[in-house]
Write the structure tokens for this entry.
Amino acid sequence: MRYEFNPPRYTWTASTAEEAKNTLQAAADLIDAHLATLVPGNSLQRYKAKESTPVSLTVSLDLDDLIEQINTKRTLDSLDFPLEQR
């Protein structure tokens, strides 16, 4: 009997820095889990499989809001100290 493994394609959306980090970790964990299925047991063979097994990954990262918060904080911080004290 032939078994065929047809995994879904994964798409995640993250809206906070923590969610983004968790999403990246989840993707790494899924890759590791599938490699463990492909090459069970032998960690050296699994390491070699990591180097040669094709996987497609696209990451789109928008840091606009974070950069805006950084710029706003820097502006507010600069207003807290008179220029003479810098």
